[in-house]
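In practice, a research group might receive sequence data for several interacting partners and want a quick structural hypothesis before committing to experiments. The following worked case mirrors that situation: the sequences arrive first, and a predicted assembly follows.
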Amino acid sequence: MVRAYFDNNANTPVLPEILEAMLPALQGAAGNASSIHQRGQAAKAAIEQARAAVADLIGAMPTELVFTSGGTESNNLAIRGVVEEWIRCQTGSASLPHLITSRIEHHAVLNVFEDLERAGHPVTYLAVGSDGRVDRADVAAALRPDTALISVMMANNETGVVQPVAEIGAIARAAKVTFHVDAVQAVGRVAVRVKEIGCDLLSLSGHKIHASMGIGALYVGRRTRLRPQLLGGHHERDRRAGTENVPGIMSLGAAAHLAQASGEPEARRLAGLRNRLEAGILASVPHSGVVGAGQPRVANTSNMYFDGIEGEALVIALDLHGFCVSTGAACSSGAVEPSHVLLAMGMTRRRARSCLRFSLGRQNTVDEVEGFLEILPGLVERLRRLSPVEASTLVQSA
Amino acid sequence: MSEGLPIAVAMSGGVDSSTVAAMLHAAGTPIVGLTMQLWNQRRLAEAPGMGESRTGRCCSLDDVQDARRVAERLRIPYYVVNYEERFERDVVRNFVDQYLAGRTPIPCSLCNTAVKFDQLLTTARQIGAEKVATGHYARVRFNPDSKQYELWRGVDESKDQTFFLWGLTQEQLSRAVFPLGEMCKPAVRARAAALGLAVADKPDSNEICFVPGNDYAAFLEAYAAEQGTALPDTTGDLVTRDGRTVGVHEGIHRFTVGQRKGLGLATQSGAGSTALYVINIDAATRRVTVGEEAALHARELAASGCHWISGKPAAGPFRVEARIRNRHVPAPAWAEPLPGQRLRVCFDEPQRAITPGQSVVLYQGEQVLGGAWIDMRA
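A structural hypothesis for the assembly, expressed as tokens:
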């Protein structure tokens, strides 16, 4: 029994109207978009409509949108595609170009850079302060004549803290360095305009904005060249081979429409819910606090620490009461590892392990938040009571 | 959640703990399945001798997947909990230090007392369960006269696991549930099959869970390399009991008392020669003493870190049956508790290969009185 699902940064439920939009494609109305016949043409038309909607949402041209299987593929395509193209064009140069990213990126970015680093690329990982933000001065200082790519996320998936991407975009443009933005957690939650950010590439994902899993997109600016990572047919203007995921694309188009039409009032509503949630917890749970408080954050995300507890145990206890929340990043077995984002913010391992992430979505209601606030304080109290070592530490610090 | 406080079942993905979960569930007990993530197999996978093909069983994705499938079949809440930091601190480091000190450690005992019946029990209670059930072959009894919990051997002599459980406290025992203590292994497998568990035929695991292929020397070296420290040089001489140097060895951590293979001594082969065994390992001089089989036998041992199941030391000396290895048949002896949680055990008959680092566990009949860590044979 699920009483409330507060884990929308992991996955959002597909909304009924979005399911409605993708059903025809699942039920056979759409063929293979490469086919000559009418079914194929119908699929092609549906794809282009969705492409226009997604492009419109981020202020891009439809031709600048490449559909992918999701955020991870978009990030891989952007980073590897740009780096490989750069190397291909510098045939005389023996050394591999320098790359810049941050320590708080999602693993779908971080692990790509670490792989490139192992392959011999010099990589700068920008630090963040306790505010959870990249400092644009650090970006400027990290630039080298051979820098080929900067990649910084727009909104952090764990804290919701919004990064100064427009400022970084200005630096990148002045230095003529390609700039990629992982906006998976930002699109649909804050206004994302690629021209205002000044980025060359931008990743987005469907299942974070109530579209289906397995669909995402990469914005590739008109002048940006990248080497495709999947080879095959001439799909997506030779940038991403493979038969289009038509149902997924239609769901993403519908989600983009929804975000365009009501994104702003929804963000205000979610901010209200999030603020009620945080105020309620701060008032009822001693030794708790908001991570990234006072920083610009996406409206739906809250990350809070509960000193003296294991976040993992609190997530399980909450789940047994029907509330879905998350902590840190899950590893392959499903167990929890301390968050690299929180550690990068200078948090102690102990506090990082006590953090929970609440991320709201369109389906969440104020009643769910109030119901959650009735349950949480008692569970935290029980956890603290049964953690003898941790509890004694708290008394000393109180 | 169903009515009543649930029991947390420690699920490893093996047949024993899976059957425990299924049996409790079938009896109508509300349960929560928990799998401990103790060691990341990928950590040392790239080190020499630790290749993927040799990764150990512990916390492998396959085992977690097996446990998860059982939980799905039973439709019980199930979670993987990460105790890697605690396991490394309390079990793995001790394991490494013990070998480098010339001893032969038993990580399973430490894991039981420091992780399974400590941190896992804490988590279980934090999420609303009052007890932890495991697949151990052992029995817990509450004695109404003494008002104490007692630890008894499992009825399946060949599977009894009390050798690894002597460190449990009254508090831990009061919250431990061992449903397999009254059962024999074939009956457990039959029960697992009857309950439709896919793991009913899964082979038993007998190796140290975090050491691939039981190659602990390779593990020690890979772990030290990962920590950025070379293993201390523990190479030295192979000497006979009368002090003659007969060879050199590549590190005391490669030896255990009673070991015969891998000594690299020519005297072992050829007609008329007698087999040589490791008799003693001296960490201070890095000397490994070898000798004939007869020299392995001794009547007395000294141990420390003594723990009594009842919570208080018995007045001694008193008669016990003492076990010095997991599959050792407990042998009649006198046990004498000494100040500072020390213990002296004097066997009626000499025992083979009393090994520092192993446990000595004291029984009276089926009941476990307590145990201690063996320091030396005397």
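Before designing any experiment, note the following. The longest helix of chain A spans residues 246-284. Residues 130 and 347 of chain A are 8 Å apart (CA to CA).
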